[in-house]
Amino acid sequence: MAPRLCSISAAARRLLGGPGSVPRDVVAVAAARFYSKDNEGSWFRSLFVHKVDPRKDAHSTLLSKKETSNLYKIQFHNVKPECLDAYNSLTEAVLPKLHLDEDYPCSLVGNWNTWYGEQDQAVHLWRFSGGYPALMDCMNKLKNNKEYLEFRKERSQMLLSRRNQLLLEFSFWNEPQPRAGPNIYELRTYKLKPGTMIEWGNNWARAIKYRQENQEAVGGFFSQIGELYVVHHLWAYKDLQSREETRNAAWRKRGWDENVYYTVPLVRHMESRIMIPLKISPLQ
């Protein structure tokens, strides 16, 4: 029985353009947009950092970064198996144009295919600099972007399902910045018991220092719209063996076991995805 092939319309071929159409400037531009800050504070101070009273304010205000107004969107696209290559090519031809266009207040953070976990899946992480107003500005402009509307129409024929979430970043995590590869990425997703987000944040604010030595910590986020009480931790490793060694090393550090002990009871469900970056991803 002959394998099924993903049919590509003439419109999709126009969007794809010629060979080698993936812009080489995506990672360079992304790197110029972001910045890093040195970690500060002693071990003793870290025991008390970000200890918050859940009665004072909304969880999003207490846990998110005050110095930025970034909003993130994560997309999960389940692709027809026979269409994954065509989906990747179409995505790599169109999304960098939005990333590089300064008229759109959005930027690509990372783009991946799931390697281990849910198969034939693409994951995209976007940053909206300026929060909800930037998101709405971008969405309104896209409604009049004929190329993007054509892209969405073609993409819809390749998908089985899709979902998204709007996220804020934890104040004590790194801000995701472009990095050179090759790397694999692990997205660990935790669905928490309602009412436990503050406790989760307080424990991880102390524990994140145990996972910084190899620069494996990429970003930490919690959901604002979509499924609630969901946490995403994004990690980078050179390979699966490096992942194993790095995680084992954390258990040899005094205090890491306490973080696991206190946070495991907060979790209803957890999931791990190992992901491979697409060519356009600023996180390589």
UniProtKB/TrEMBL annotation:
Biological process terms in GO annotation: mitophagy; sensory perception of pain
Pfam family, one: NIPSNAP
Compartment list: Mitochondrion matrix
Keywords: Autophagy, Mitochondrion, Transit peptide
Origin: domain of life: Eukaryota
InterPro entries, sorted: Dimeric_a/b-barrel, NIPSNAP, NipSnap_domain
Domain annotation NIPSNAP: ranges: 185-282
Gene Ontology MF term list: protein-macromolecule adaptor activity
Transmembrane region(s): none
Residues forming coiled coils: none
One Gene Ontology term, aspect cellular component: mitochondrial matrix
Family: Belongs to the NipSnap family.
Name of this chain's protein: Protein NipSnap-like protein 1
Gene source species: Bos mutus
